[in-house]
C-alpha cells in the first residue's frame, strides 16, 4: 500500500511532464516545420491581408452602414445585415459564423421552435432567389440551405444550393451563367479518394474567385 | 441512402478488419514482453521511467495487488486533478484570468477524466486555464486509456494462465502501453491530421475583417496533438466546444475517415491481441465478428432514419429527398462535407466505442436516429467499447453466454478449457448488472424529483431523452451528450459572474462515472484472478466451442437481451415516442 502510494505520486509527476508538456510541444514543433500554413489555420489572403481561413465559413450578407459610415449594430451589439446579391451565401448559422466560441442550438427533431426556424430560413431563401429563379418551390430548396450546421462555421454549401444561387450572382455581376458555373466547379471540394464524404462548394474561395474576375474591391462596394 | 454512402461504410470496415490482426499482433508482443523494433529507440526511456517511479517491473502481482495499485493510482490522480481544477486562480498559462468554477463542477470534471468518460458540463474555452487543459485533462486522455488497456492485459493473462495466479505488473503494463502504443500512434496520427488542416500552434487567436468587412476571430491552439489521443484512447473530449464538427478539428472528408478509424482501431485490434495471448486466434475473431455485426446494424438504422428527415423539417415543408447535388435528409446539426452517411456512421461508432466525440449534433437527430447512440451505450460499452475496458467488459458477457449455453445443454460451462463455477458467475453478474442498474436508478432519481428539472433544456419527450442520455452516457463512461442537458449554468457575463453548478446533476453524474468505471474493472480482474489458477481441461467432443458462428450469434443475443431489454421501457418514453409520431412539442 505504502509502496503503491509512493510509486503513484512519482508516476503522476513523471507522466504529467511527459504527456502534458513534452508530447504537445514536440508535436507542435514538427507540425510547424512540416506544415507551416496548415498548422496555423489555412489562412487566405487578399492583397497581402488575411481575409479568412479556407476551412472556416463566413457570413456574406452585407452590413448596413450607419450615418457614421460604420456597420450599424442592433441592441445586442451584433451587426445589422442585409442580402448581398453579388455573393454566394453560406448556410444559416446559430452563431453568426463565430469561429472563437462555437455552440449549437440543440433543438430536438420534434420541437416547434425548430419547425419555426426552418420556416423562417426557407422563406428567406425563397425571397432571395425567386427573382432570378422564377418558379422555385420549397421542394426545390436543398436541405443544407435551410438547416444550421453543427459547427456554425460550415465552409461549404451543396452543389444544388450553389446552382440555384449562381443565377442570382450571374445577374448581379453581369456574368454568363456558364462562367459562374465553371467557378463553382473549380471551387468544389470533392470526395476524398473519390467516395469519402460529400462534395461541397467552398463559399469563401468561390466568392474570392468571383472578386478576382470582377476586380472591384470590397471597400468600394461598401462605400 | 446512396450507393456511395454504403461504399464508404464497407470500405471503413474493410480497412478496420485488415488492420486488426496487424496492430493486434504488435500489441500482443508489447504485453508479452517480446522484442519490438521501437524498443531500440525508446527502451532507455522505458528503463528510465521505471527508475524514476522506483518500481521493479519484474515484480509480479496477483489480481488483488494489481487491482489495489490501479485504485491507489487512480484515486491519487483524481485528487491531483481536483486540486488543479480548484486552484485556477494561481495557475500559469491563464491569459483570460479564469478563476476556479464551482466545486461540484470540478468534482464532475475530475471524475469524468479519470474514468475515460470525458463528459463535459464545463465549457472548455470559457472556464478552464491552458494549464488545466494541458497538465490536467490532456494527461488523463493518455492515462485513463492506458489504465484500461493495462487492466485488459492482466485480465487476458488470467484467462490464458496455466495455473499461476500472477497477472503481470501494473507499472510495466502502464508504461509499455504509453510508450510503445499510445504515444507513437498519437504522434503520427496528429501529423496526419495537421496535413489535412487541423491546427497545431501555440500562438493566440487572430482577428481580421472578412470579405464583407465584418470582424472574425479564429481561435487557435495545439489541437491536433489532443485530437489524435482523444480518438485513439476512446476519450472524446474535444478541443473546441462542438468537437469534431468544427473544421479546425476535422477539416476534410479524409480527416473524418482517419478520426473515425482511430475510434475503433485499438478496441478492434485488442480482440486480435486477446486471440494471440490465449493461443487461439479464432477466439479473438469470434468476438470481433459479434461486435462488428452489432455496430453495422446500428449504423444501418441511424443512416436510414437520418436520411428520412425529421418531423420538424416535414412540418416546415423542407425538402428531405436526396437529389442531384444534395444529400437531402436531416441536415440540421450536420456538416455539408460529412452529409448523412458519414455523420450517421460516426454517431453509431462513437457510441459503440466509449468515445463520445461527435461530428454532428446528436440532440437534433430524429427520434429513431437519436436512439441509436443511446442503445449503443445501453449495451454496456462492450461492442468495442473503451480501449481495454470494452474488451474486459465483453469477456464478462462471453462468460455469461458460455454459462447460459451450459445451462441449455446441461453441461458444466467451460471457457478456453477452464470451468466456469459459482464464484466466477457471481463476479460476472456484479460486473454486468451494476452499470444498467446505475443508469436506471440515476435517471429515475433525476426525473422523479424536482432536483433533475433545472438541467433539462428541451420540453416534452426530448427532455426525458436528454436525462436518460446523460446518465446512460456517464455511467457507461461514454461522454457523448444530448448537449442541451446541463450541470453548469453560465450567464454570458465577463469573468463568469453569476455562474453556478447544478449540484445534483454534477454529483450524481460524477458518482455514476466512478461506479461505472471501477466496479466492472474490479469484477473483471477478480474473474481473471479466479480463472488464473484453474487447470485447463483438454477440449473433447462435448465441449461447447466458442469460436464458431453459433457462439457469435449467442453472444450477440446475450448482449442485446441484457443491455437493450433492460432499457426498453425507458426507451419507449423518450426516443420511440418521438420516432412514432409526427407531433411537435
Oligomer: heterodimer
Q: What string gives the helices and strands of chain B in order?
A: HHHHHHHEEHHHHHHHEEHHEEHH
The helix tally of chain A amounts to 7
Instruction: Outline the low-pLDDT stretches of chain B.
Output: none
Largest sheet of chain A: 3 strands, antiparallel
**Which outline of chain A best applies?**
elongated
Shape of chain B: globular
Work out the number of β strands of chain B. 6
Rg estimate of chain A, integer Å: 23 Å
Uncertain spans of chain A, ≥5 residues at pLDDT below 50? Answer: 217-223
**Mean of residue pLDDT of chain B?**
92
H/E series of chain A: HHEEEEHEHHEEHH
Strand order of the largest sheet of chain B: 1-2
Mean pLDDT of chain A: 90
Based on CA atoms alone, the radius of gyration of chain B comes out at 23 Å
> Got a strand count of chain A?
7
Largest sheet of chain B, in brief, is: 2 strands, antiparallel
Describe the structure.
Chain A has 223 residues and is mainly α. Chain A has seven helices and seven strands; from the N terminus they run H-H-E-E-E-E-H-E-H-H-E-E-H-H. Chain A has helices at 2-34, 36-39, 112-129, 159-173, 177-186, 203-213, 218-222, and strands at residues 43-46, 49-53, 62-63, 81-82, 156-157, 188-189, 200-202. A three-stranded antiparallel sheet of chain A has the order 5-7-6. In chain A, helix 4 packs across helix 5. The longest helix of chain A is centred in the N-terminal third of the chain and has 33 residues, at 2-34. Chain A is elongated and about 80 Å long. With 585 residues, chain B is mainly α. Helix content of chain B is 62%, strand content 3%. Chain B has helices at residues 3-32, 39-53, 63-86, 103-114, 124-127, 130-160, 170-196, 224-232, 253-277, 281-308, 311-315, 339-352, 367-378, 389-409, 422-448, 461-475, 503-532, 549-580, and strands spanning 206-209, 215-218, 414-415, 418-419, 488-489, 500-501. A two-stranded antiparallel ribbon of chain B has the order 1-2. Chain B has a two-stranded antiparallel ribbon with strand order 3-4. A two-stranded antiparallel ribbon of chain B has the order 5-6. In chain B, helix 3 (63-86) runs antiparallel to helix 6 (130-160), helix 7 (170-196) runs antiparallel to helix 9 (253-277) and helix 10 (281-308) runs parallel beside helix 18. Chain B is globular, with a radius of gyration of 23 Å. The mean pLDDT of chain B is 92. The interface between A and B is large, with 116 and 130 residues.
Amino acid at each position: 500500500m505504502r509502496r503503491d502510494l509512493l510509486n503513484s505520486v512519482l508516476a503522476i509527476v513523471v507522466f504529467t511532464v511527459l504527456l502534458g508538456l513534452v508530447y504537445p510541444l514536440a508535436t507542435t514543433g514538427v507540425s510547424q516545420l512540416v506544415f507551416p500554413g496548415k498548422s496555423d489555420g489555412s489562412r487566405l489572403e487578399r492583397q497581402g491581408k488575411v481575409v479568412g481561413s479556407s476551412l472556416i465559413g463566413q457570413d456574406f450578407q452585407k452590413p448596413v452602414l450607419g450615418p457614421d459610415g460604420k456597420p450599424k449594430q442592433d441592441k445586442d451589439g451584433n451587426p445589422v445585415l442585409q442580402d448581398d446579391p453579388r455573393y454566394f451565401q453560406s448556410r444559416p448559422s446559430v452563431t453568426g459564423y463565430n469561429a472563437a466560441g462555437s455552440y449549437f442550438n440543440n433543438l430536438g427533431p420534434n420541437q416547434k421552435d425548430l419547425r419555426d426556424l426552418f420556416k423562417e430560413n426557407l422563406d428567406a431563401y425563397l425571397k432571395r432567389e425567386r427573382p432570378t429563379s422564377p418558379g422555385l418551390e420549397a421542394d426545390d430548396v436543398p436541405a443544407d440551405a435551410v438547416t444550421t450546421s453543427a459547427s456554425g462555421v460550415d465552409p461549404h454549401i451543396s452543389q444544388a444550393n450553389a446552382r440555384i444561387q449562381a443565377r442570382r450572382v450571374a445577374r448581379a455581376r453581369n456574368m454568363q451563367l456558364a462562367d459562374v458555373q465553371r467557378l463553382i466547379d473549380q471551387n468544389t471540394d470533392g470526395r476524398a479518394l473519390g467516395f469519402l464524404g460529400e462534395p461541397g462548394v467552398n463559399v469563401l474561395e468561390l466568392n474570392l474567385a468571383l472578386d478576382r474576375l470582377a476586380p472591384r474591391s470590397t471597400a468600394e462596394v461598401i462605400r | 441512402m446512396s450507393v456511395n454512402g454504403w461504399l464508404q461504410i464497407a470500405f471503413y470496415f474493410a480497412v478496420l478488419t485488415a488492420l486488426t490482426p496487424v496492430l493486434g499482433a504488435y500489441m500482443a508482443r508489447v504485453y508479452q514482453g517480446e522484442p519490438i523494433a521501437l524498443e531500440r529507440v525508446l527502451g532507455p526511456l522505458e528503463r528510465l521511467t521505471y527508475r524514476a517511479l522506483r518500481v521493479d517491473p519484474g515484480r509480479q502481482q496477483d489480481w488483488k495487488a494489481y487491482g489495489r495499485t490501479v485504485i491507489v493510482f487512480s484515486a491519487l490522480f483524481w485528487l491531483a486533478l481536483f486540486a488543479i481544477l480548484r486552484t485556477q486562480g494561481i495557475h500559469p498559462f491563464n491569459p483570460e484570468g479564469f478563476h476556479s468554477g464551482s466545486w461540484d463542477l470540478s468534482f464532475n470534471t475530475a471524475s469524468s477524466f479519470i474514468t475515460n468518460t470525458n463528459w463535459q458540463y464545463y465549457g472548455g474555452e470559457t472556464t478552464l486555464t491552458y494549464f488545466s487543459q494541458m497538465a490536467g485533462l490532456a494527461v488523463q486522455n493518455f492515462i485513463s486509456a492506458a489504465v484500461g488497456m493495462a487492466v485488459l492485459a492482466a485480465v487476458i493473462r488470467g484467462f490464458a494462465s496455466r495455473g499461476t495466479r500472477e497477472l503481470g505488473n501494473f507499472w510495466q503494463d502502464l508504461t509499455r502501453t504509453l510508450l510503445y502504443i499510445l504515444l507513437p500512434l498519437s504522434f503520427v496520427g496528429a501529423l496526419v491530421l495537421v496535413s489535412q488542416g487541423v491546427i497545431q500552434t501555440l500562438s493566440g487567436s487572430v482577428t481580421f475583417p472578412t470579405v464583407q468587412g465584418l470582424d472574425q476571430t479564429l481561435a487557435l491552439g495545439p489541437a491536433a496533438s489532443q485530437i489524435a489521443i482523444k480518438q485513439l484512447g476512446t476519450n472524446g473530449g474535444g478541443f473546441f466546444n462542438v468537437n469534431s464538427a468544427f473544421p479546425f478539428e476535422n477539416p476534410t472528408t479524409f480527416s473524418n475517415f482517419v478520426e473515425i478509424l482511430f475510434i475503433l482501431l485499438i478496441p478492434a485490434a485488442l480482440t486480435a491481441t486477446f486471440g494471440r495471448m490465449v493461443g487461439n486466434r479464432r477466439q479473438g475473431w469470434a468476438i470481433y465478428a459479434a461486435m462488428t455485426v452489432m455496430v453495422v446494424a446500428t449504423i444501418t438504422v441511424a443512416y436510414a432514419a437520418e436520411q428520412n428527415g425529421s418531423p420538424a423539417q416535414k412540418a416546415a415543408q423542407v425538402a428531405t429527398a436526396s437529389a442531384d447535388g444534395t444529400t437531402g435528409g436531416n441536415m440540421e446539426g450536420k456538416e455539408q462535407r460529412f452529409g448523412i452517411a458519414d455523420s450517421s456512421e460516426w454517431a453509431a461508432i462513437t457510441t459503440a466505442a466509449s468515445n463520445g466525440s461527435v461530428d454532428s449534433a446528436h440532440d437534433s437527430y430524429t427520434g429513431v436516429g437519436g436512439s441509436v447512440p443511446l442503445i449503443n451505450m445501453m449495451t454496456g460499452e462492450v461492442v468495442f467499447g473503451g480501449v481495454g475496458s470494452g474488451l474486459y467488459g465483453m469477456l464478462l458477457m462471453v462468460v455469461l453466454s458460455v454459462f447460459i449455453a451450459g445451462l441449455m445443454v446441461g453441461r458444466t460451462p467451460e471457457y478456453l478449457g477452464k470451468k466456469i463455477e459459482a464464484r466466477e458467475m457471481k463476479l460476472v453478474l456484479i460486473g454486468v448488472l451494476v452499470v444498467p442498474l446505475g443508469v436506471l436508478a440515476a435517471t429515475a432519481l433525476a426525473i422523479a424529483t424536482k432536483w433533475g428539472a433545472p438541467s433539462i433544456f428541451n420540453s416534452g419527450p426530448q427532455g426525458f431523452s436528454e436525462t436518460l442520455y446523460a446518465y446512460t452516457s456517464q455511467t457507461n463512461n461514454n461522454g457523448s451528450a444530448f448537449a442541451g442537458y446541463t450541470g453548469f449554468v453560465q450567464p454570458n457575463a465577463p469573468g463568469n459572474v453569476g455562474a453556478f453548478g447544478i449540484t445534483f446533476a454534477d454529483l450524481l453524474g460524477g458518482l455514476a462515472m466512478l461506479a461505472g468505471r471501477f466496479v466492472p474493472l474490479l469484477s473483471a480482474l477478480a474473474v481473471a484472478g479466479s480463472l488464473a489458477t484453474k487447470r485447463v481441461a483438454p477440449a473433447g467432443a462435448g465441449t461447447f466451442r466458442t469460436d464458431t458462428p453459433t457462439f457469435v450469434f449467442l453472444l450477440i443475443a446475450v448482449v442485446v437481451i441484457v443491455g437493450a431489454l433492460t432499457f426498453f421501457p425507458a426507451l419507449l418514453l423518450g426516443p420511440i415516442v418521438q420516432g412514432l409520431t409526427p407531433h411537435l412539442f
